[in-house]
């Protein structure tokens, strides 16, 4: 008897929301292990990662975006917009809800399960629309933080709610294990380069 076809899965990661959720729980996300986890659950068709960046060239998130782009994720970014609110304060706007929603509706007919990493209640209508197309929706966020990171209406709408804290052992890492900051890595690389370029003893280049 032939084995049933593997479930087709797509991941939708609200980058800023997932970062805030993991931070509230006291750990970092290991994105390589996260990808492996869901590749092991079925046929992973897409892993979308959405984030707005303040400066496309020099953003502190640039190294992560580049790494994700080269390691199996479909990265969707846009520049943030600055505006002055009614009280005269500078605000930065960078909402990726529309981009995520459009991609989810486009791919819905090709997947069996959508995994949404976000607690944003604005996605409730999207989840409902995707479910009407026969897709099961798992939402990953947390109720373990104070206050909870997930909106109650989104949690109720999901077919499955998974608390991120339950996945910590699978793809979490302690913040102290975090890779060296880019500046430090660059500094170490320059030191290594200088050492490798030093001439052998007896060949003093200062002549």
CATH class: Alpha Beta
Weakly predicted, low-confidence segments: 180-185, 199-207
DSSP strand count: 10
Q: What is the CA–CA distance across the termini? A: 81 Å
In this structure, how is the largest beta sheet organized?
6 strands, parallel
- Described by its quaternary structure, the protein is single chain
The string of secondary-structure elements, in order, is: EHEHEHEEEHEHEHEHEH
Q: Can you tell me the CATH topology?
A: Rossmann fold
Tell me briefly what this model is.
The chain is built from 8 helices and 10 strands. The model is unreliable at 180-185 and 199-207 (pLDDT under 50).
What attributes does this structure have?
single chain; 207 residues; alpha/beta; six-stranded parallel β-sheet; two-stranded antiparallel sheet; 8 helices; 36% helix
How is this structure best described in words?
With 207 residues, this protein is α/β, with parallel strands linked by helices. The chain has one domain (8-178): 3-Layer(aba) Sandwich (Rossmann fold). It has 8 helices and 10 strands. It has helices spanning 15-25, 31-39, 62-70, 97-107, 124-132, 152-157, 168-171, 182-197, and strands at 8-14, 28-29, 43-53, 74-79, 81-84, 90-93, 113-117, 136-141, 160-163, 172-173. The strands form 3 sheets. A 6-stranded parallel β-sheet has the order 4-3-1-7-8-9, sandwiched between helices. The longest helix is centred in the C-terminal third of the chain and has 16 residues, at 182-197. The radius of gyration is 21 Å and the shape is globular. The protein starts with 7 loop residues before the first strand and ends in a 10-residue tail after the last helix. Mean pLDDT is 85; it is low at 180-185 and 199-207.
């Amino acid at each position: 008897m032939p084995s049933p076809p593997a479930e087709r899965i797509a991941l939708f990661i609200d980058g800023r929301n997932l970062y805030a959720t993991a931070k509230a729980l006291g750990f970092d996300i290991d994105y390589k292990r996260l990808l492996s986890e869901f590749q092991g659950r079925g046929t992973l068709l897409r892993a979308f990662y959405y984030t707005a960046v303040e400066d496309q060239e020099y953003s502190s998130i640039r190294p992560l975006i580049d790494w994700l782009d080269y390691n199996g994720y479909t990265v969707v970014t846009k520049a943030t917009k600055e505006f002055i609110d009614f009280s005269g304060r500078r605000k930065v706007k960078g909402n990726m809800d529309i981009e995520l929603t459009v991609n989810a509706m486009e791919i819905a007919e090709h997947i069996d399960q959508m995994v949404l990493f976000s607690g944003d209640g604005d996605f409730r209508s999207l989840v409902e629309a995707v479910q009407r197309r026969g897709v099961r929706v798992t939402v990953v966020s947390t109720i373990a933080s104070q206050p909870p990171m997930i909106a109650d209406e989104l949690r109720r709408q999901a077919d499955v709610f998974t608390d991120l804290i339950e996945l910590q052992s699978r793809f979490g890492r302690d913040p102290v294990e975090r890779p060296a900051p880019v500046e430090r890595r660059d500094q170490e690389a320059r030191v290594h380069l200088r050492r490798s370029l030093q001439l052998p003893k007896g060949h003093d280049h200062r002549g």
